[in-house]
Design brief:
- The chain is mostly helical.
- The protein is built from five helices and no strands.
- The longest helix has 36 residues, at 118-153.
- It is elongated.
Amino acid sequence: MKQVSQKQIQANKNNAKLGGVKTQQGKEATRFNALQHGILRTSISEYEKFDYESLFDSLKQDFTPQNTLEEILVERIAISYVKLLRVSKAEVEFIKETMSPNNSILFPEHTYESELSVNGFEKLANIYARYETSVENRFYKAINKLIDLRKFGNGKESI
């Protein structure tokens, strides 16, 4: 590893005191650098990507984020909503499969014998309910934080 000179260390310290980007053009160019890699988006599957991107674009138009923090909150709202859709779809599929009637009047040849006991069904239903509650809490928390940030940013008292 290369040894750094005292002169270079002092120059780095002096440069650090100067702060970041100063011009409005520079600020506009760098304002969303923290989101460049979309770390929060890694929890969205390829299957959900289109829904997420459409929702995120729509929310960005609705909220017009003014800084990185607002952009992160808008992203969090979009991700949480996609996860709510995910849990709803999974719950519907689970219920269809486990609650399918054993004898269909319209299609008697299509019968299904559930492999889950009532106890197993209740356990899975509770898991879905807890997951949904957890995601909803994050969804509404992000919305409220964004609203609070907007109030604070406009000189109004934050809740």
